[in-house]
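Each letter names a residue; the fold follows as tokens. Both lines appear below:
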Amino acid sequence: MMIQYLDRAMSSSPPGPRGEPLFGSSRRYARDPFRFLSACEGAYGDIASFDLGPMDAYLLTDPGEIERVLVSDHEKFAKPE
């Protein structure tokens, strides 16, 4: 599994859990990251999005999509500095 962070400028996001105001899903993620990410994959599939406080996080579990984000189309995706 892998998390890819992108800025909030994306026009549309994949489905994902609704987070709390200000914190997003960060508290649920902090309690048990593996369980949280596994639940996201089970509920939303190979690509899911969720808020981690001020950042949007994207979970990619499909190897083809991971390759696309990191290799073949990497210039289309913002990365954290």
User: Anything to note?
Assistant: Residues 2-74 form one domain. The helical segments are 26-31, 33-44, 63-72. The longest helix spans residues 33-44.
